[in-house]
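Give me the fold.
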Amino acid sequence: MTQYQSNIKCRIAVDAMGGDYAPKNVLIGALEAYNESPDFELLLIGNKNQLIEIAKQENLKLDENLIHHTSEVIEMSDVPTVAIKTKKDSSIVVGAKLVKEKKADAFVSAGNTGAMMAASTLIIGRIPGVSRPTIGAPFPTEKNKYCLVFDAGSSVDSKPQHLLEYAVLGTTFAKEIFDIENPSVAILSVGEEESKGNELVFSTFKLLKESKLNFCGNVEGRDIIKGTADVVVCDGFVGNIILKFGESILTLLKTRLKNYAKGGVLNALKALIVKNVLKTILRDMDYQIHGGVPLLGINGISIIGHGSSTPLAIKNMVLRAKEMYEKNLIQKFEEALKNYAVKSE
């Protein structure tokens, strides 16, 4: 069992070379997190000379002792499983190894998502009882809270046992990070009735019903935004489609608003007012606020960010990693997998 002690500083390794705007955005964001909450140890994984040069250009105070030099980078175009085998001195591989070797408690990267998932799974390893790690996406709801959807794309062709594990991990994450006392769990289906769905839904329904989770049955796609359940489980193929569709809504609203503003001065003034209102009420849909998504089920903290992450997103990824460590989530995941899976007789 992984043991964390609250009196020991969290050690967070950050992939300084990962992302479309690395190392600049990563360096700025990581240092902002460190300056805002300095009670953790920061380790920047990447090319030392590049990081020092960026720090000079941006007039950043950088302690060179924070840098763990690496000579290789896994590019966004690289094949994940091939890259982690051939680029042994890449920032992603080295960062994952530091967690594996207990030299770091968390690893954060906005680099190649597939490589990050592969390195986390194959190098750091899984928590006992987890057959597949999962990532979740937080969706804002009508109830001014979040609905967490698992799996949001870490794998496809899930089996019922995988969805049960997603539900257990998701329940623990919702309870600890979003302060939901007894998270409700549902299965995404084509109807609320128990008779609706496919074989995966039918079999998962039975497993969840027999578990000690707060299972509330099936929900439809619209129920995610309604906030009918706190945690919704589905196959990663479906979950990723929902995630990408949800992300496109903001782009649609921005485009429609921009086109409307082109209709004249009055339209432009109206659009400006609406834009400011939308910016405020839809703030919780901004990926920068969440920073990245944790890969749950890994025997260490692993957080994956968007490739185009801004310094704000990087900062929030680092702070989320710190929060997960302080709340002892890895051990709580282990305990939940033992306690939630099957109802006591």
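The longest strand covers residues 40-46.
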